[in-house]
Design a protein that fits this description.
Layout (H helix, E strand, L loop, with lengths): L1 E2 L3 E2 L5 E6 L5 E6 L8 E2 L14 E4 L6 E4 L34 E5 L37 E3 L3 E6 L13 H19 L6 E8 L11 E7 L4 H13 L3 H10 L4 E4 L3 E4 L8 E7 L11 H19 L8 E6 L13 E6 L1 E3 L2 E2 L4 H6 L8 H13 L7
Antiparallel strand pairs: 1-5, 2-3, 3-4, 4-8, 6-7, 6-9, 8-10, 10-12, 11-12, 11-16, 13-14, 14-15, 15-17, 16-17, 18-19
Helix pairs in contact: 1-4, 4-6
Catalytic activity: alpha-D-galactose 1-phosphate + UDP-alpha-D-glucose = alpha-D-glucose 1-phosphate + UDP-alpha-D-galactose
EC number: 2.7.7.12
Protein name: Galactose-1-phosphate uridylyltransferase
C-alpha cells in the first residue's frame, strides 16, 4: 500500500489522485469523516496497452459527428457481483479499482472519446482547439472524419454492487457532487475539449450494463447538437431566457420542490411521460461554478427528488439524469446549468418507445399532460421523509 498526494476540496472532501496499471487516471474522493485510511493499494495488474482512439464521421445530412467506437462492443455486460468491475479489487476479482473507496473516478477502458486529446491518428485529423479555417468542424463535404479526441470517465458512487444516486446517504451524495465539480473543471481545461457532460443512466430499460451505482462524464471535442440548438434558441428568445423560464415555471402548478437555491419542476412542454428539470436560481454555467451553499442544498434536494420518482411505483424507475452544462468557450453567460431527468416509464408496466414520429422525424407526442405528471410526482415526493445533510 502507498499514500498518494492529497487535495482538500469543499465540504471536507479529500481528493487522492493516482494511476491504474495502464496509465489511466484514477481519483479517490473520500467522504468527510471517512473511515478509510490515507493509504491505497497500487494497481498491480498486467493490462494490455490502451486501444487506439476512435474516429468520428460527419453526417452530411445533419452536420452531426458520429463517433465509431468499435472497442465498446467488448465492454462488461451485467456481470455477477463477484466479478463486478467497479467493486474494490479482491484476490478473485481483478476489478478497475485497487482499494476500498467512498467515491472513485477513473478513465473508461472502452471510451467513446479519447484517450487522445489534441493528437490525430490514422487518416482522421485531430480536433482543432479552437476550430479554424477550412478544417473547421462545421465545414461542408462528404466523407469527412475526425479523431474522437476527448475523455470518458466513470464515476463510482459507492463500493456496493447495486444501487443508484438516490440510494446514497446525503453525505455521500455531497461527495459525488464535489467530484462532479472537480472533474468538470479539470476536463474543461484539457486541450480539444468543448463541452463536459456528467450523467447517470439507471436501469436495464435504459440500457445499463452494470448494476453498480455509478455515472459517467463525457468530455466532447465539439459542442453537442442539443446544445447548438439551445444556443440558437437563446439568440432567438433573448439572453435572459433561463431567468424567464424559471420565473414562468415557479409560477405554475408544475413545481415539485423549491429551496433557497434550486427549483425542480415538470417543464411546460415535457416530451417524456416522466420528465423533471432541476435548475439553480442564478446564472451558473456548470457545476464547477456552484457555491458550497448551493451544493449543500442540492445533495438532499436531489435525493428527495429521486426517491420520490421511485415512490411512484412498486419497482425502481429507469431514468437518464443528464446534467446540461454550458460549453467551455461559448454561452457561459447565457446557458444555465440544469438537470434534465427523463424516463420512458408511462405506467407501472408500460414504457414509451420512440417509434416512427419521434425516432424518425423528431416530432414528439406527449403521453401524459405535464400538470398531471407533476401532481403524481408531488404526491410521491410528499410521501418521502425529509432528507437533510
Amino acid at each position: 500500500m502507498t499514500e498518494f498526494r492529497t487535495e482538500h476540496l469543499g465540504a471536507g472532501v479529500v481528493k487522492r489522485p493516482t494511476r491504474l496499471a495502464d496509465g489511466r487516471e484514477l481519483i479517490y474522493f473520500d467522504d468527510p469523516g471517512t473511515t478509510l485510511g490515507p493509504e491505497r493499494n497500487v494497481d498491480t495488474r498486467t493490462l494490455d496497452p490502451r486501444g487506439e482512439t476512435a474516429t468520428m464521421r460527419r453526417d452530411v445530412l445533419t452536420g452531426d459527428w458520429i463517433s465509431v467506437a468499435a472497442a465498446r462492443q467488448n465492454r462488461a455486460f451485467l456481470p455477477p457481483a463477484e466479478l463486478d468491475p467497479l467493486a474494490p479489487q479482491t484476490p478473485t476479482n481483478p476489478s478497475e479499482i485497487p482499494s476500498r473507496y467512498d467515491v472513485a473516478v477513473f478513465e473508461n477502458r472502452s471510451p467513446s472519446f479519447g484517450p487522445a486529446l489534441a493528437e490525430a491518428h490514422g487518416d482522421a485529423p485531430a480536433a482543432v482547439d479552437p476550430p479554424t479555417g477550412l478544417d473547421d468542424l462545421d465545414a461542408p463535404g462528404l466523407g469527412r472524419t475526425r479523431t474522437s479526441v476527448g475523455r470518458c470517465e466513470v464515476v463510482c458512487f459507492s463500493p456496493e454492487h447495486e444501487g443508484s444516486f438516490g440510494t446514497l446517504s446525503p453525505t455521500r451524495a455531497r461527495t459525488v457532487i464535489e467530484a462532479w465539480a472537480d472533474r468538470t473543471a479539470a476536463l474543461a481545461a484539457l486541450p480539444g475539449i468543448q463541452q463536459v457532460f456528467p450523467f447517470e443512466n439507471r436501469g436495464e430499460a435504459i440500457g445499463v450494463t452494470l448494476p453498480h451505482p455509478h455515472g459517467q462524464i463525457y468530455a466532447y471535442p465539439y459542442v453537442t447538437p442539443r446544445t447548438q440548438r439551445l444556443l440558437a434558441q437563446l439568440d432567438r428568445e433573448g439572453a435572459d431566457l433561463f431567468e424567464r423560464i424559471l420565473a414562468f415555471e415557479q409560477d405554475s402548478d408544475r413545481v415539485l420542490l423549491r429551496g433557497e437555491h434550486w427549483t425542480a419542476f415538470v417543464p411546460f412542454a415535457a416530451r417524456w411521460p416522466l420528465e423533471v428539470h432541476l435548475m439553480p436560481h442564478r446564472q451558473v454555467a456548470d457545476i464547477a461554478e456552484t457555491t458550497d451553499a448551493e451544493r449543500d442544498e442540492l445533495a438532499p434536494l436531489y435525493l428527495r427528488l429521486l426517491r420520490g420518482v421511485d415512490a411512484l411505483y412498486d419497482t425502481p424507475t429507469p431514468y437518464i439524469a443528464a446534467w446540461h452544462q454550458a460549453p467551455v468557450a461559448v454561452g457561459r453567460d447565457t446557458v444555465r446549468l440544469r438537470l434534465e431527468l427523463t424516463s420512458p416509464r408511462r405506467a407501472a408496466d408500460k414504457l414509451k418507445f420512440l417509434a416512427g414520429s419521434e425516432a424518425a422525424m423528431g416530432a414528439w407526442i406527449g403521453d401524459v399532460p405535464p400538470e398531471a405528471a407533476a401532481a403524481k410526482l408531488r404526491a410521491a415526493i410528499d410521501s418521502i421523509p425529509e432528507v437533510t445533510l
